[in-house]
Amino acid sequence: MVSVGVIVWLSSELMFFAGLFAMYFTIRAVVPDMWTENTELLNVPFSTANTIVLVVSSFWCQFGVFAAERFQPRRLGSLWQVSKWGMQEWFVLTYIFGAIFVAGQVFEYAELAHEGLTIAENAYGSVFILTTGFHGIHVFGGLVAFLMVIGRSYASKRFGHQEATSAIVVSYYWHFVDVVWIGLFTVIYILQ
């Protein structure tokens, strides 16, 4: 039931992001000249590196899910034996990469503000900050969820089906956030 509930909730989140994409394309169609001058401010190589960080975090997350499905909450060997890592180690690594992504977004916003592009500056700034900002808030929510799952795995006396299910549904959310970012990155940074 939890998995189905999360999938239904993610469907509503998909509609939310569809609305953001619609806003982006509508304003772009109405004011195309604004896109030409403002997309020059985007640091595409930096954003590409930041995107790679987020996409790689999805792989770490999935390795954590595989460990959770084996009911392995923590590593079975030394920290350097990555093949024996449990869910906690993989989720901590996912958390670190997710936090790096959010820090990268904050850095990018600061750089754009320094260049004069803010949410109040023009329609492009508003659309850019709203779409990427709402995504960043969703990533932050995922980071909180990872902390909760990791904490729950430490607190439980026996890592069982409920703990594994929590890890799995958090991975659904994380993969969803990654796919949405790939769409945003493609539209905003590649297609411009």
From TrEMBL:
Pfam families: COX3 (PF00510). Keywords: Cell membrane, Membrane, Transmembrane, Transmembrane helix. It comes from the Bacteria. Its EC number is 7.1.1.9. PANTHER family: CYTOCHROME BO(3) UBIQUINOL OXIDASE SUBUNIT 3, CYTOCHROME C OXIDASE SUBUNIT III. Belongs to the cytochrome c oxidase subunit 3 family. This is cytochrome-c oxidase. It comes from Kineococcus gynurae. The lineage of its organism: Bacteria, Bacillati, Actinomycetota, Actinomycetes, Kineosporiales.
